[in-house]
Amino acid sequence: xxxxxxxxxxxxxxxxxxxxxxxxxxxxxxxxxxxxxxxxxxxxxxxxxxxxxxxxxxxxxxxxxxxxxxxxxxxxxxxxxxxxxxxxxxxxxxxxxxxxxxxxxxxxxxxxxxxxxxxxxxxxxxxxxxxxxxxxxxxxxxxxxxxxxxxxxxxxxxxxxxxxxxxxxxxxxxxxxxxxxxxxxxxxxxxxxxxxxxxxxxxxxxxxxxxxxxxxxxxxxxxxxxxxxxxxxxxxxxxxxxxxxxxxxxxxxxxxxxxxxxxxxxxxxxxxxxxxxxxxxxxxxxxxxxxxxxxxxxxxxxxxxxxxxxxxxxxxxxxxxxxxxxxxxxxxxxxxxxxxxxxxxxxxxxxxxxxxxxxxxxxxxxxxxxxxxxxxxxxxxxxxxxxxxxxxxxxxxxxxxxxxxxxxxxxxxxxxxxxxxxxxxxxxxxxxxxxxxxxxxxxxxxxxxxxxxxxxxxxxxxxxxxxxxxxxxxxxxxxxxxxxxxxxxxxxxxxxxxxxxxxxxxxxxxxxxxxxxxxxxxxxxxxxxxxxxxxxxxxxxxxxxxxxxxxxxxxxxxxxxxxxxxxxxxxxxxxxxxxxxxxxxxxxxxxxxxxxxxxxxxxxxx
Length: 606
What we know:
Elements: H1 33-41, H2 54-60, H3 63-70, H4 99-107, E1 118-120, E2 126-128, H5 150-163, E3 174-175, H6 190-200, H7 212-223, H8 240-253, E4 264-268, H9 269-281, E5 290-296, H10 300-309, E6 312-317, H11 328-338, E7 343-350, H12 362-375, E8 378-382, H13 399-405, H14 408-411, E9 416-421, E10 434-440, H15 444-456, H16 462-472, H17 482-507, E11 513-514, E12 523-524, E13 527-528, H18 532-540, H19 545-557, E14 559-560, E15 562-563, E16 574-579, H20 584-604
Parallel strand pairs: 3-14, 5-6, 5-7, 7-8, 8-9
Antiparallel strand pairs: 1-2, 4-10, 9-10, 11-13, 12-16, 13-16, 15-16
Helix pairs in contact: 1-3, 5-19, 6-7, 6-16, 8-16, 9-10, 11-12, 17-20, 18-19, 19-20
EC number: 2.6.1.2
Keywords: Aminotransferase, Pyridoxal phosphate, Transferase
Catalytic activity: L-alanine + 2-oxoglutarate = pyruvate + L-glutamate
């Protein structure tokens, strides 16, 4: 069949095999072939994908370079990719064998002349794909999210293999990679589920099984919904009465600091609010492009969102030697260096910390607010773990409360957005996607644009809004459900505190593992010593050493952790993140397996 050439190929002259084609005609079997390909891309690929700058990644993922990496000099495929997350036929240079690079390469389907592969339709007409790696949004290729990365994908495969009766050196996969409390066995709060059940199926309001306070709350929520149904849209900013309850909660939490419900936006979890704020902040080109300061280690939502939005990620390092505290000198270093190539406009803080589990002191928060005021930075306070504080002497201080206690010089000038969620703390209701953000000192015109932006998505899930209302306005003393609520809440937080202490104690008995106190949140982020022999083998396989370590642990023990390189860490250090959420008996098994594996791994590679 005669091939219908795309418009952009018409008139293209076929290249001969002259001198100008000598590079393209290099011998694929030559040991220098890969380096010749790299040279033609105009890049030196020393180092790993995670160590490359965003600019270098964009250049590597350009359509020309992807075609060059994909194909041999005569259009032939180049062999098998070395990365376990890819099943495609291609050669991926070891320094580029990251999940992102391999998926990007394997997704690009090209013909011998580098054109989109044509697909034959039922009527015999062929046409190229409209959406290809060449034509898709290039920033999406830069997005990485380690919490659900290749190790987690392999864990899912192992679970399937176990269910099929394939023999493994372990009986089950223990997923300690993500803060999903209910998936780990934590029980929901009875009152919350009762009210949500009543709201979802109002006929149950006639059932005497449910306590009267749960019924009254369900009626009140339904009256606030369109058509008295959770299935109706709400106002885009959120149900008015729920936003008022959120404002009342913030005032109680912060000792009477006033809160205007017009500054409250109900969101699809905290993540939705964070990304929405980043969308407002990102602008400019070149040296005027927005830079956003994020902590390292960081929760990968931030780096992923900044990559997708085309913003500049400005790393500031937490002080591991001082329980992952923030250091103003480090913030100053980061912002000074960033001003050479971008316009720093925002500073993000996660408190209590994820993945590091620290709780910042009040003095630290004051210092950060002064720094933000001096450097004219918009503050973003991720406070979704505000009820998860375990260590003696530690206390959660909201950025808003500290800001207002510092007086008008700061409370009337520093711009702040703070975030909370139904997914963490004692609730653990991740799947309902409830959350809120509060904005302080936001320009009125920008606030109008923010409301417009959230209106495009209509509204946050209404069941999540209802749950948020229950979180900020739980049963009170004298209510029929109060005693059960307090008992369940206290038991959940006490168990988490016990597990935080246990995790620190057991991990610190292992030579080569050092774990800071888990002061809050739901994670530990211990530092691990990896032998040089193991580091060398990992790099030869195109993997980060801690990725190699965690993948090996998964294959040998069934324990699924996230390597520290997925969150960022100081060069030459290695970590993993594990959640403390499994039931105490299973957590003990998990920690002892980690201990045994690390000892075996160290001995094997010493």
